[in-house]
Amino acid sequence: MRYRKLGLTELNVSLLGFGASPLGDVFSPTDPEEGTRAVHHALDQGVNLFDVSPYYGVTLAEERLGVALAGRRDSVILATKCGRYGVDLFDFSARGVAGGLEDSLRRLRTDYVDLLQVHDIEFGDTEQIIHETLPALKHLQKQGKTRYIGITGYSLKTLLHVAAAVPVDAMLSYCRYNLLVTDMDEALVPFARQHEIGLINASPLHMGMLTENGAPEWHPAEPAVHAASRRAEAVCRAHGVSLPEVALRFCLAHLYVSSTLVGMATRQQVDENLRALKDVDDEELIAEIQAVIVRDQNVVWTSGREENYG
């Protein structure tokens, strides 16, 4: 396993991070005992960043991760989120995020997290997040409830706006850097690099799109993007290689991102994702994939409040 420092923090995170949302049955029902075995297997292979949220499975992912980490908390860099608690349930108030963290700590069976992140900030009033939510997280940090604070979201514009107004230790961006979309590099990465903010990239498989089976029905991308992913899969199949492995390796090769989060719930998934860490020259294959998807690259969807689109 390789590790990178997360911005200016003291956290050296694994290049491959464990996205715990599948433990909450977000994509399909999972076996909780196998989920625990997957967490232990990932730890044994050097994965140390585990990212979760009370939103995933409506607290189920946190509960199951807490069980799995019993007795191994000291080996983990544990990240959770606050502010989003359901599909349409948000509470970015100071009281809400403080109470939300207390509930998360109880489910995770710990008295602190290493990184507390405001979840999906494009769904909130950015003025509230700047002037109330993040100051509340700073207070929780002073109390020792979290070592570091961060923000997450789909809207790059909103991440940039909030991070420019309030210093944060880390930013998590999802579905904005992978084989289909790379616009995270246009402004967010230069800003993070300039200010030495840790950057976490999530959804390297574009929320299930860059897999052999394709995206789930609820995926918000346009039909043309779905079709482009199928063309990418056909290229990989013709070469006898796995599209998810190629897609993940593409993301892991990013020079600034500290960790790439991948959802996992079984030992087999852990092993499949670990294979992407091997040094393989994909340059010609990536060029061939990009040639068949170029007209549908960097096509994004809207998310959150209209004023936060972007």
Question: Which helices and strands occur, and which strands form pairs?
Answer:
Blueprint: E1 3-5, E2 12-14, E3 16-19, H1 32-44, E4 49-51, H2 60-68, E5 77-82, E6 84-86, E7 89-90, H3 94-108, E8 113-118, H4 126-142, E9 146-153, H5 156-165, E10 170-174, H6 188-195, E11 198-202, H7 223-238, H8 243-252, E12 259-263, H9 267-274, H10 283-293
Parallel strand pairs: 3-4, 3-12, 4-5, 5-8, 8-9, 9-10, 10-11, 11-12
Antiparallel strand pairs: 1-2, 6-7
Task: Outline the structure in words.
38% of the residues lie in helices and 17% in strands. It has helices spanning 32-44, 60-68, 94-108, 126-142, 156-165, 188-195, 223-238, 243-252, 267-274, 283-293; strands at residues 3-5, 12-14, 16-19, 49-51, 77-82, 84-86, 89-90, 113-118, 146-153, 170-174, 198-202, 259-263. The protein starts with a strand and ends in a 17-residue tail after the last helix. The strands form three sheets. It has an eight-stranded parallel β-barrel, surrounded by five helices. Strands 1-2 form a two-stranded antiparallel sheet. With 310 residues, the chain is α/β, with parallel strands linked by helices.
**Helix-strand pattern:** EEEHEHEEEHEHEHEHEHHEHH
Low-confidence stretches: none
Largest sheet: 8 strands, parallel, barrel
Find the count of extended strands (DSSP E, 2+ residues).
12
Helix proportion range: 25-40%
Alpha-beta classification: alpha/beta
Q: Can you give the mean pLDDT?
A: 97
Number of helical stretches of at least 4 residues: 10
Instruction: Give the strand order of the largest sheet, numbering strands 1, 2, ... along the chain.
Output: 3-4-5-8-9-10-11-12
C-alpha termini separation: 34 Å
Query: Per DSSP, what share of the residues sits in E-state strands of 2 or more residues?
Result: 15-25%
Rg from Cα: 18 Å
Shape: globular
